[in-house]
Amino acid sequence: QVQLVESGGGLVQPGGSLRLSCAVSGRPFSNYNMGWFRQAPGKEREFVGSITWSGDSTYYSDSVKGRFTISRDDAKDTVYLQMNSLKPEDTAVYYCAADVDLRVGDTPEEYDYWGQGTQVTVSS
Predict the structure, then answer these.
(1) pLDDT tens for each residue of the chain, 124 residues long
(2) CB atoms within 10 A of CB 120
């Protein structure tokens, strides 16, 4: 079993930055890909980005490319989502997820374990 706990959400003004963290426990962290998703009220959960088990490759949705950066620290069993130049449309609950079968996917169905989510609100 894998447990994921997100932190770092909050209220930020447009143009500001936040860094989300996702602490992972339960299985060797370095064995699987990690993804970030978000879900706004009334909308489906959408892919934000992902990072491979090795950290060599990252993938982003077009809506966040160039503003968000995913990284991982295997020594701390933690994956990060650095969010810069935030916009009101980035407001959502953000979830991290673990892909233990190394699918490198961008749909929720391709991820096996999920955190509880952390709220990010971008507003003046």
Answers:
(1) 889 999 999 999 999 999 999 999 987 878 889 999 999 999 999 999 999 999 899 999 999 999 999 999 999 999 999 999 999 999 999 999 999 888 888 999 999 999 999 999 999 9
(2) 22
